[in-house]
Design brief:
It is a single chain. The longest helix has 37 residues. By secondary structure, the protein is an all-alpha fold. The protein has one domain: Orthogonal Bundle (MetI-like fold). It contains 12 helices and no strands. 73% of the residues lie in helices and 0% in strands.
């Protein structure tokens, strides 16, 4: 099946965007590193060998070992899997729930709009990381609890973005015409309005993904993420602080992994935003 003309146009513009291309290269590198490297490495990321603790890079351990003698390259790769799992799960759930609430709020209006938006405002009143810490403290440091906490933090932004877009779109001529023809309201929302909201949703999703990765790393750094010996980048960074003077590799590499991943997704999101921005399109002619 051939891609639609709109998708081909988007891909062509992505190839012309330097920001998007750099972001795609970085994101592709992180995904390949996290998914393919564990298949090639002979080491268990959680296997301890204290005799080999804090070893420098060698032909056996390409990036050295940590304070428990665990292979750093293996832990970085498996930590990438955890970060990608959290990022994908949080982004998908935030999109599904946030878009649903925002679309319902903007399309229904009235008391429904008021109740949903005041609840979103209440969630946004708390600093994101502080709210996530409170939720993880209640539900525990499991993968499900972390995803749930970061999803609750991310829902309000999607809801507000979609609500604003729906409020604009529902006054359009094609919506008025569909209403006059007797088309059911839920069909108008799903078939006519939401497809035209895809641009802001895509941009917000590309920016939410690195936010979720940063959130998981922050929780793990504070000791509220997945319990040891899970190879989370945030926990690796936290555990390596005590050995910065004698073996800084673990701290530098885990911080670099977080930096590259977040930078890649942010550049990709910025590139997509520039492409989908109507003013940017007009400026390009």
């Amino acid at each position: 099946m051939r891609p639609s003309p709109e998708l081909r146009t988007l891909l062509r513009r992505l190839r012309r965007s330097r920001l998007a291309m750099v972001g795609m290269v970085l994101v592709g590198f992180v995904i390949a590193f996290s998914l393919l490297l564990p298949l090639l490495l002979p080491f268990d990321p959680n296997q301890m060998n204290v005799r080999n603790a804090l070893q420098p890079p060698s032909s056996v351990h390409l990036l050295g070992t940590d304070h428990f003698g665990r292979d750093l390259l293996a832990r970085l790769a498996y930590g990438g899997i955890i970060s990608l799992q959290v990022g994908f799960a949080v982004t998908i759930l935030s999109v599904l729930i946030g878009v649903g609430l925002g679309a319902l709020s903007g399309f229904a209006g009235g008391a429904t709009d008021t109740v949903i938006m005041r609840f979103m405002d209440a969630l946004m009143a708390f600093p994101g990381l502080l709210l996530a810490i409170a939720l993880v403290a209640v539900f525990g440091g499991t993968m499900g609890a972390i995803v749930l906490a970061l999803t609750i933090v991310g829902i309000p932004r999607f809801a507000r973005v979609v609500r604003a877009t729906v409020l604009q779109r529902k006054e359009a001529d094609y919506v008025v015409a569909a209403t006059a023809l007797g088309k059911r309201p839920w069909k108008i929302l799903l078939q006519d309005i939401l497809p035209n909201c895809s641009g802001p949703i895509i941009v917000q999703a590309t920016l939410k993904f690195p936010g979720a990765i940063l959130g998981e790393a922050g929780l793990s750094f504070l000791g509220l993420g997945l319990p040891p010996p899970a190879p989370s980048w945030g926990r690796m960074l936290q555990e390596s602080r005590a050995f910065m003077e004698v073996a800084p590799a673990a701290a530098i590499l885990s911080g670099l992994a977080i930096f590259i991943t977040v930078l890649g997704f942010n550049l990709l999101g910025d590139g997509i935003r520039d492409i989908l921005d109507p003013r940017a399109k007009h400026a390009r002619g």
